[in-house]
Structure formats: C-alpha cells, structure tokens
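[Automated response] Your request has been received and processed.

Submitted sequence:
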Amino acid sequence: MLSVHKNAEHFMVLEWNSGVIEQWLINNRPMLGTIYAKWLVSYLTSILPLMILTPLVMAIYHLDAVIALKTLVSVIVALPTIELLFMLSSIFSIGQTHKGVLMSIIVFPLISPLLLLSSAANDGQTSLWVASCAFTGAISLIALVTVPWCIYK
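Generated structure:
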C-alpha cells in the first residue's frame, strides 16, 4: 500500500506545474480518457508487480495454496479502489508541497473498510470470503466509474 501511496502522490503534478492540464481543457481533449490511461499505466507499473510477488512471498512462507489464491484474488479486487482513492486525494492536494500526510488523512478512513473486507481471505470460511470479495468488487466497480469522473470535475 505504501508503493501505491508514493506512486499516486505524483499523479498529474507534472501536468499541473507545466500547464498541460490547461492546454488540454482549452483544446477540448477528452480528460476522462486521459485519466483512465494514466490510471491504467500506474496500475500496470505498480500494482501488477505486487500481484506477481504475492504468490511468491506466500510460497516462501510455506502458506497453503488456497489461502494464497484467496489473498491474490483479494489483492486483485481491492487494489484498484485503493489506487483510485489515492489518486483522488492527490488531485485534492495538488498545490501542496508536502502532501503525503494530507493524502493519508484523506484516504485511510476511506480504505479501512476495504482492508477489513480483504482480510477475510485468511479466515477459514469460504462463504465469508466470497461475500467480502463480491462486496469489495462492487466497491471497485463503483470507484472505477465515479472516481475518474470526480477527478475530471
């Protein structure tokens, strides 16, 4: 989660400082497509390595394969929402010089339910895990639709 925080801290900062965002708005460039593209690149460069390393770390610690699979699915379902919320808080604090603490204050209360739901992977009950993954997936889909729109507005 710290890598997501540090990666999202620089979301759109270079564009803001150089005036590119104003150029995009003047030229009627589709901002939602740009925001989704920046999120996808960030997701592939920061989250995908975490997804690849999760089963490897679990194999090193000799954890059960079922628990490793459940944890990997929980990571896949929850991390898009966490990254989108960090990106939204980065936009909220785009003019600040030291915005890491402000981003944490904004985001951590919002992602604590996701962390609690994702921790159900270590529980032995499969029905609880399926329900928590379904709920976390619904939150991720809602975030994928609403957060880029909030960043745009």
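Summary generated for your ticket: The longest helix spans residues 31-60. The two ends are 26 Å apart (CA to CA).
If you did not submit this request, please reply to this message.
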